[in-house]
Design brief:
By secondary structure, this protein is of the alpha+beta class. Helices cover 37% and strands 11% of the residues. It has helices at residues 24-38, 102-115, 127-140, 157-175, 208-217, 225-234, 243-256, and strands spanning 12-14, 42-46, 55-62, 65-66, 72-74, 77-82.
Amino acid sequence: MLKRHHHIKPAQFIYPEESLISGSTTLFNALLIKCLEKKVMAVCRYISRRNTPPRFIALVPQEEVLDEQNVQVAPPGFHLISLPYADDKRNIDFTEKVPANEEQVDKMKEIVQKLRFKYRSESFENPVLQQHYMNLEALALDLMEPEKAEDLTVPKTEAIDCRIDHLVEEFKQLVYPPGYDPEGKATKRKQGGSSEQVEKKAKIEISEEELKNHVRKGTLGKLTVPLLKDVCRSYRLKGGGKKQELLDVITEYFSSH
């Protein structure tokens, strides 16, 4: 009755409870029998609890199923399925998948075969629990610091690389196009040429007149180092990392300008 895209969340199964609502069993059975006879479902407005917005749901009937020994296999009742709103549905553009050829599949089978090993649960200890035991041991023996537990669950990358190093390179040549580097990082291209590119002037929180007044009064040292660095960047002055070096460069510049 429902289409696959109508199922947006797990369904619930409902049945009557006579102890809570008297007469619910009779009404429930009548609705269930009629829906099964007509092969239809009921669309209802559903409020799961107080202070929650209502939803449209579908009540899909289910007939009781008994086995050969007359034991119930599936109970009678309704599957409560939340119906989607228009906003819940969207069209997704699926990209065309390129299937792998036989040569690529065979090469990957070789890689998987090289990485196979016999798993035994007793070969891998819980690293968190082992570290806890070592912490307790260090505390009991009054040690300066506990030993670090070896994590046996971490893959041994060096051994793996030695096993499949040449196979991985062969697989890359089969899968990737010529000249493609899967581990390469894309570099951002700068806009414009180096000669035409105009450097942006750094914004500073102090005006040029205020800087000149500080130089004349000898109070330039009251400014912070980050502000002094911003001044040097703004006026393209080559100052060091120390505050005194920044002060000397700025003072020399404004004394001559």
